[in-house]
Fold:
Amino acid sequence: MEPGDHGLLARPREVRTVRRLLREYPVVAILGARQVGKTTLAKTLARRGVRHFDLENERDRARLAEPLMTLESLRGLVVLDEIQRVPSLFEPLRVLADRRPSPARFLLLGRASPALLRHASESLAGRIAYHELGGFVLEEVGADQLSKLWIRGGFPRSFLARSDRAAVEWRLDYLRSYLERELPMLGIRIAPESVRRFVQMVAHYHGQTWNGSEIGRSLGVSDFTVRGYLDLLSSSYMVRVLPPWHENLGKRIVKAPKVYVTDSGLLHALLHIRTREDLEGHPKAGASWEGFMITQIVAKLGVRREECYFWGLHSGAELDLLVVRGRRRYGFEIKLTEAPSITPSMRSAMENLRLERLDVVHAGAETFPLATKIRALSAARILKDLKPLVGG
Structure:
């Protein structure tokens, strides 16, 4: 459970989405990183009459020793928090979900991705909907808070901290707990100092194509083992792994994924960046901006992770973000500049990928056309000038 998270910023779109899913499915899972606001969202959905079980609490786990006996008499909304702690609950939930009429809806909160829960939740196929909850995005905090959101990241406790110093301290505490408690629970069985080195290496790879062999040699493990560690970081929402787009173009396509620390604030903590001044002089500033804007674009478009790719050729041409919705393809190139221009790489992406349009997201104040189907899109105007995708 996420303690002390009452009264945080309202998240109306998230509330609407989960309410819709609860009308359509007997079981809904809200999945996301620890302290991202899952418990707060659950409390917003049903302030009265909700039954809440915190599966990190021994007393609540004891109440669910016979889950069918405990749960079958309940009505309304039933919240099972930290569901990854008791995966054996998925089988009795199947029995309860199949009742007609159904007297209850079950809201599961967890820190593991659908991929990590897949084996345990197979019995709920067709009965469960997943909703992944991230940190705050521009749509929730407003475009005037763009710089603060970039520096502090989207975790509620960091973004809403009373001072920059308090925000940094919260993130450092969060990372300490993640490295010392959460990763060992997920199965990374190496010395704590090696775990920290691995995560910091990932931070230094932020915005780059993954080279597991290089990191494996540094840690003294195989690249296969390192890829397993990366998958665990992705499954616990610490890292975004952006897969490459493959297509038979008759060209040498980059086939390694790109990696990003999902939250810009945690990235800055790992890189010892505390202030805007620290960031502006840091060699990873451009990569940080790229990852931050990818998060904002994906949230604004309303696309799923499986619709998002990057594209690159060994000749050097690349595209930071490719969104594929059905037969339509949308490209995004992200630049930490106030004066974007068209590059040969952009023209190559337009031609090879047959894009509907290409947006060059930049740090300037205005949105304006650069060429046919190519425009410079101001990050400050992304809420007004970028429209959600429909269909698919």
Observations:
- The longest helix spans residues 164-186.
- Residues 166 and 335 are 30 Å apart (CA to CA).
